[in-house]
């Protein structure tokens, strides 16, 4: 049977206490005071579903560097483009072979688990990635509950660290919430009705059917990964005759509800503390139900990587509440005359350099081993001409060689930080630096590269991506 061979997760650096939100908006909606516990993750202005999925995929691929996926799937309901292959872009960013199958999946909150079930039915290694950045109107419960995150699992032949025992899937056009092109944000139905008519009428039956397919008693399930509010999860566990302790942590207190990828985010957190020979039921709910049963193997205990725990430990408190609605597009601010510059992307130029830009690929001199970015024909060290091989900078550590904090330049999060970055092993580049606050940088500060949004061309509905240095102490892939 196939199994899970690696996993990865990504949490944005910014964390917002829900009490901070309530302190600002409880005058308008007193009910949110009841939700004002714990924290939620907040994506920076240059993060979206694609960049978070890339970061999660990087951590999964780092876990088993010898495994090269033949398929890459990206699951999201908040992907930035309606007609562009995000998974194709991600394959280039991750420097995967051009002869790879790519697929974008969407349409419901179980898009990620449906992709996992399809991968388990495949005979090749499949990297399933998922991420969402959902917008919510300020002052409502959704803004308090949501969080931003990405996750990835590498599935392939052989048991790996968690062998698949059985799968089950059922479709049902039960609309518990929806998001239309016209509305642009979730419209949610009444909570109790969703629980009774949707969740409890669907999930227990699907889990029982998967157990019957595997020839297991439901009572053998050690961990139930259920991406639903804990109060609903306890009802499901009770209906299945399982103790409440079998429910995997929903991560509400530290992360929030992260949308399409939440089941995989929960799974990543669970696998990092799970023992061998335990049965996990991975559930996806949304216009039907998916279930995949796994049994962990001894190989799990040999994996020392902990991408979720590392990301969770490396957050920074966001004290300015207004950055949440501003970064997510729910609030407009006067960005000044400098923000009026045309952000049009020259598509022909981009295509000529797309592999170098997406993969951050420069060159290295074959005569003296000097790296260059951007790619060069003439070596800056030995002046050799056209003696270059490809050289990837995206995964290399770096440090600050010089920097500027520019308070006059147009940027969604002043100051605009940029400078000369020196890479380990050689090579320098003048780059924009992100995820830093004023006064945080110094000469020699350790950095690593993160794939981020470079510019938003709002006049044409396009966004341009590139690599930016971020503090090396954070989990940015």
Account of the 3D structure:
It is a single chain. The strands form five sheets. A nine-stranded mixed beta sheet has the order 5-4-6-7-1-8-13-12-11, with helices on both faces. It is globular, with a radius of gyration of 23 Å. Helices cover 24% and strands 28% of the residues. It has two domains: 3-327, Thiolase/Chalcone synthase (Peroxisomal Thiolase, Chain A, domain 1), CATH 3.40.47.10; 346-471, no CATH class. The chain starts with a strand and ends in a 6-residue tail after the last strand. With 477 residues, it is α+β, with helices and mostly antiparallel strands. Strand 4 (71-75), helix 3 (86-93) and strand 5 form a beta-alpha-beta unit.
Helix share, percent: 10-25%
Strand order of the largest sheet: 5-4-6-7-1-8-13-12-11
- The CATH C-level name of the largest domain is Alpha Beta
Please describe the biggest sheet, giving its number of strands, its sense, and whether it closes into a barrel.
Answer: 9 strands, mixed
Instruction: Based on the coordinates given, report the CATH architecture of the largest domain.
Output: 3-Layer(aba) Sandwich
Briefly note the CATH topology name of the largest domain: Peroxisomal Thiolase, Chain A, domain 1
Low-pLDDT stretches are none
Residue-averaged pLDDT: 95
Oligomeric form of this entry?
A: single chain
Structural class by sheet pairing and helices: alpha+beta
> Structurally, how many domains make up the residues?
2
Number of helices: 12
Provide the gyration radius in Å: 23 Å
Got a strand count? 22
CATH superfamily of the largest domain: Thiolase/Chalcone synthase
Overall outline: globular
Q: What fraction strand?
A: 25-35%
Distance between the first and last residues' Cα: 30 Å
């Amino acid at each position: 049977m196939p199994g899970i061979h690696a996993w990865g997760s990504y949490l944005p650096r910014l964390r917002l206490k829900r009490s901070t939100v309530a302190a600002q908006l409880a005058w308008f909606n007193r009910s949110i005071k009841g939700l004002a516990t714990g924290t939620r993750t907040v994506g920076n202005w240059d993060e979206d579903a694609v960049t978070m999925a890339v970061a999660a995929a990087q951590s999964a691929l780092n876990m088993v560097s010898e495994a090269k996926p033949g398929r890459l799937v990206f699951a999201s309901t908040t992907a930035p483009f309606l007609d562009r292959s995000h998974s194709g872009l991600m394959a280039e960013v991750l420097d995967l072979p051009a002869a790879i199958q790519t697929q974008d999946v969407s349409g419901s909150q179980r898009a990620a688990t449906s992709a996992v079930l399809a991968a388990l039915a495949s005979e090749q290694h499949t990297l399933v990635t998922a991420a969402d950045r959902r917008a919510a109107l300020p002052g409502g419960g959704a803004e308090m509950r949501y969080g931003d995150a990405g996750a990835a699992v590498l599935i392939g032949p052989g048991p790996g660290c968690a062998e698949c025992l059985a799968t089950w899937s059922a479709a049902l056009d039960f609309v518990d919430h929806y998001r239309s092109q016209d509305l642009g944000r979730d419209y949610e139905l009444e909570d109790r009705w969703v629980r009774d008519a949707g969740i409890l009428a669907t999930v227990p039956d699907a889990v029982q059917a998967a157990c019957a397919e595997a020839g297991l008693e439901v009572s053998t399930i050690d961990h139930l990964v259920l991406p639903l509010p804990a109060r609903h999860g306890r009802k499901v566990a009770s209906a299945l005759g399982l103790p409440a302790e079998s429910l995997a942590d929903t991560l509400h207190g530290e992360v929030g509800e992260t949308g399409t990828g939440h089941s995989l985010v929960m799974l990543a957190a669970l696998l990092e503390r799970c023992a061998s020979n335990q049965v996990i039921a991975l559930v996806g709910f949304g216009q039907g139900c998916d279930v995949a049963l796994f049994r962990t193997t001894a190989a799990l205990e040999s994996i020392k990587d902990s991408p979720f725990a590392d990301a969770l430990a490396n957050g920074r408190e966001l004290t300015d509440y207004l950055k949440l609605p501003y970064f997510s597009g729910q609030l407009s601010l006067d960005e000044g005359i400098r923000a009026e510059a045309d952000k049009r992307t020259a598509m022909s130029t981009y295509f000529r350099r797309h592999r170098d830009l997406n993969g951050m690929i420069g060159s290295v001199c074959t005569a003296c081993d000097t790296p260059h970015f951007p790619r060069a024909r003439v070596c800056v060290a030995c002046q050799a001409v056209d003696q270059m091989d490809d050289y990837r900078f995206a995964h290399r550590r770096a440090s600050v060689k010089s920097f500027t904090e520019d308070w006059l330049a147009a940027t969604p999060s002043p100051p605009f930080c940029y400078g000369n970055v020196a890479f380990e092993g050689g090579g320098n580049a003048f780059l924009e630096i992100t995820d830093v606050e004023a006064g945080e940088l110094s000469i020699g500060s350790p950095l690593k590269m993160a794939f981020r949004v470079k510019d938003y061309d709002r006049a044409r509905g396009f966004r341009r991506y590139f690599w930016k240095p971020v503090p090396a102490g954070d989990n940015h892939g």
